[in-house]
Write a structure and sequence with these properties.
alpha/beta; Rossmann fold; eight-stranded mixed sheet
């Protein structure tokens, strides 16, 4: 794993890149949740299974977290910093997959089309604020791109429904942290990667 800093319009972002054993089949860029980091259990398990399947994985720590702040930056600033990082990391000819958990999943979804992503991985996509189903964020899901959403059926932020090219895998007994049966979550991601020829 190599760690680097990429300058963005919102300050420095930290990048941790892990290359697979052979030539990479695809590049998966993952972002963290609002108050957490890139080493959350579900992100770590997905990182490990993806690199084992031939995927180059880049973990992105947003500038507000690098600066030591816990409260997330506004959505537009998150998207701006993320966009700068992804443009720096993208390689011609290598399929670009964007993803993350919770807030990071929303950023990936909102920026996927503009960044030319081949697919999106959304872990614990927060469909709405807890107890506020009328404030749905379903419109952020990129329905015209292969998108995998993995949510727990006990997530207080809700569970999206499949629409367009959005596939939803519901994890029984899991809450927003997706800690229950991490192996099952990782297997769902691996199946999705292989189905689209983004992993070996």
């Amino acid at each position: 794993m190599a760690t680097d800093i990429i300058q963005t319009p919102r300050g420095p972002a930290e990048i941790e890149i892990t290359d697979p054993a052979g030539p990479p089949v695809s590049l998966l860029v993952l972002g963290h949740g609002a108050g957490g980091g890139v080493h959350a259990p579900d992100l770590t398990r997905v990182h490990d299974i993806a690199t084992a399947a031939g995927v180059r994985v880049a973990l992105v720590t947003q500038p507000y977290r690098v600066a030591g702040r816990r409260a997330p930056a506004p959505a537009a600033q998150l998207d701006e910093a993320w966009t700068a990082v992804v443009r720096e990391l993208a390689e011609p000819g290598l399929p670009l997959l964007l993803g993350g958990r919770s807030s990071g999943a929303r950023v990936a979804c909102r920026t996927a089309a503009a960044l030319g992503a081949a697919g999106v991985l959304a872990l614990a996509f927060p469909l709405h604020p807890p107890g506020r189903p009328e404030r749905s964020r379903a419109a952020e899901l990129p329905t015209d791109l292969p998108t995998l959403v993995v949510n727990g059926d006990r997530d207080p932020f809700g569970v999206p429904v499949p629409v367009g090219r959005v596939e939803v895998v519901v994890r029984p007994g899991a809450t927003h942290d997706l800690r229950k049966d991490l192996a099952g979550t990782a297997d769902a991601v691996l199946t999705w990667l292989r189905a689209h020829h983004w992993g070996r």
